[in-house]
Amino acid sequence: MNNKTTKGFKKSWFGKLILNNRVVVALMITLLVLLILLVVSKITWIFTPFKQFFNIVGLPIVLAGVFYYLINPLVDRLEQRFKMKRTWSISIIFVVVAILIVWGIVALIPVVRSQSIALINNWPDYWNHAVSEVNGFLRDPRLSEVQKQVQNINKDTVASITKSVSSFANNTVSSLGNVIGMLTKVIIGVITMPFILFYLLKDGHQLPNYLARFFPVNQRERFKSISGEINNQLSQYIRGQLIVAFFVGLMFFIGYTIIGLKFALTIGIAAGFLNLIPYLGSFLAMIPSIVIGAFMSPAMLLQVLVVFVIEQTIEGRFISPLVLGSNLSIHPVTILIVLLASGQMFGIIGVIFGIPAYAVLKVLISHLFNWFKRTSGEYQETVVMTPTPKKNK
Fold it and tell me: Which Gene Ontology cellular component terms are annotated (predicted)?
């Protein structure tokens, strides 16, 4: 097809209405993407082997990746500052971590176990007392509707808990095989994780150069740049969240111990784990402490609220800005939307890993959009230079 034919084709009604119409082209591309997604949804059996493979190796790989981002900066520092070989530094760190784990098993787990059992046994009394206090506060005739809603919420909560416990008891025998299989998978993952972590710490810094060999020569530097940016985003988020969670649990434990709140250690550890959920974890961890504080005395409830305010102030003003910084550049509203969407789709796993997954997708999409802007030429702004008038001498 010569140039004249091409120009005539573009000037025809089909070219004007279809090819040169951006709205139509965008709709056609959207339709193709939806058709591809529809076809993929119909052939999900192709991905079954990959799903089974990930179910086997997913847990140890994820755990090893999390600990890699936590330990790798220390290994790099030992190698650069003290000229220590990575194998020796990794081995020393592993020994120290093993000693800490053994100490935690011997010293902390019995205390946490006894406190957890006591908390579970006494929780109905704590909850009923808190509900009765709220109902007493709402006895004002002007708040009768609110009181009815609180009573309905309490009845629904108790009924839901009772139904869940009954269902769990009825399905325990039938689901015993699944429970054993899950425990076996967890045990195997925990055992194999240190070996994966060791080689990841030893050779992980060479992984981008190895993967770059599968890309064209002119795209290798770009791949290394993108992978380095993704690595920085993940390392900063995971390492920062774990460090902040540790200090949050420690601050809650110290604060509750000072005021004499029951189950301070268990609530502090739970607060640390729940803090892995951004913006929501600390508030979720406050529910048991508020209920227990209200059961003990109004003064204890007030002290619990004071501890929470102090913890939030220290975390928000000092710890989080110092540890996390602002490199992720994710708006709080976006974080809440991602948490809700990922939690609805993937459960607790989505809540924990939704933000780092969004950070990775953000890097990839931003680079893809920058490439599209460079190649399309649609985003180039033409600057009109106005000539400056010459001054008369």
Answer: plasma membrane
Q: What is the C-alpha to C-alpha distance for residues 281 and 335, in angstroms, rounded to an integer? A: 13
Q: Once rounded to an integer, what is the mean pLDDT over residues 111-136?
A: 80
Map out the domains of the chain as residue ranges: 54-167+180-203+224-328
pLDDT digit string, tens, across residues 132-143: 766 666 665 655
Q: Would you state the torsion angle of the CA atoms of residues 42, 47, 49, 55, taken in this order, to the nearest 10 degrees? A: -120
Greatest Cα pair distance, the chain, in angstroms, is 102
User: CA gyration radius for the chain?
Assistant: 29
Looking at residue 173, what is its pLDDT? 46
Report the first-to-last Cα separation within the chain, whole angstroms.
Answer: 60
67 has pLDDT over 80: yes
Q: What is the per-residue pLDDT for 219? A: 84
Average pLDDT over the chain, rounded to whole? 78
Least confident of 198-207, 348-357, 369-378: 369-378
102: pLDDT strictly greater than 80? yes
Token pair recorded at residue 339: 């948490």
pLDDT tens, 221-253? 888 888 888 888 888 888 888 888 899 999 999
Higher pLDDT, 59 or 156: 59
